[in-house]
Design a protein that fits this description.
5 strands; SH3 type barrels; mainly beta
Amino acid sequence: MTLREMQAGQKARIEKVDASQPGVVRLMVLGLIEGAEVLFGNAAIGGDPLEVSVFGSAISIRKQQAGNFRVTPIDSND
């Protein structure tokens, strides 16, 4: 599963990042790194961009770039 496939309100942990695409390294600097927990906020009308929260900050990310972040869902009770 990738960030692109997450649903509103879902939590996940980033397991792998493909930094070969332009702009992905910039997102990593903002906190989207392996091991980080993210909360999917919402998507704009039309589905792009997406909003995720990481380390208490909201980040907007393009759907295309979100596909570069492989995640594992986290049970909401954790």
